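Severity: low
Component: inverse-folding endpoint
Summary: output formatting inconsistent between runs
Steps to reproduce: submit the following structure tokens with default settings.
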């Protein structure tokens, strides 16, 4: 085991345990067959870090993801990801790309899509959000329908989630901590612009 550690560095479990200690979260050890998780509460929200596997063409591709369900107050959704050659081709052929108008470097480096241009401008005017996103070498964050691993989705229709996902297993402690900081800032700012409620989305007696 020590030889493997010398060859490949600390394991995911080691890094994620240390991460949970740093940010005041809980590390849930999935054992050999379960799923490891880091779970952190930020105000009334729960932020979850885990991995999942996509099976395609007889291959198994593992992804790292972070999710945070929240009550979507007005249906505002967005996606932000780093600009690539292929994304530029898609934009050339008509794919939407919104510019924030507040940060030329950010607008050049990232593709932003959403269903409300004014809310996008308000959301990405947050300098801390833009700064942390720039510090992440791989980033794709979107708002979509909240889901769990349960067979029946327990969330009502007005519960969405912030979701980050990247191919592979993330073991960079600093990058992971930045992600949690980013999610906390994004959740707070969604409330600030009137796009979220600062409530626990698992409650049943709320605003639908």
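Observed output (run 2 of 3):
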């Amino acid at each position: 085991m020590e030889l493997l550690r010398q060859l490949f560095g600390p394991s995911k479990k080691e890094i994620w345990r240390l991460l949970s200690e740093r940010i005041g979260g809980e590390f849930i050890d999935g054992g050999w067959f379960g799923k490891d998780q880091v779970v952190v509460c930020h105000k009334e929200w729960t932020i979850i870090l885990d991995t999942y596997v996509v099976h395609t063409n007889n291959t198994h591709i593992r992804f790292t993801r972070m999710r945070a369900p929240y009550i979507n107050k007005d249906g505002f959704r967005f996606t932000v990801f780093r600009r690539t050659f292929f994304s530029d081709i898609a934009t050339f052929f008509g794919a939407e790309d919104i510019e924030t108008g507040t940060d030329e470097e950010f607008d050049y480096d990232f593709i932003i899509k959403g269903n409300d241009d004014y809310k996008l401008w308000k959301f990405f005017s947050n300098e801390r959000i833009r700064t942390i996103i720039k510090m992440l070498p791989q980033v794709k964050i979107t708002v979509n329908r909240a889901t769990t691993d349960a067979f029946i989705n327990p969330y009502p229709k007005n519960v969405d989630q912030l979701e980050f996902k990247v191919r592979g297993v993330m073991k960079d402690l600093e990058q992971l901590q930045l992600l949690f900081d980013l999610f906390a800032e994004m959740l707070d700012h969604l409330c600030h612009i009137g796009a979220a409620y600062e409530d626990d989305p698992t409650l049943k007696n709320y605003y639908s």
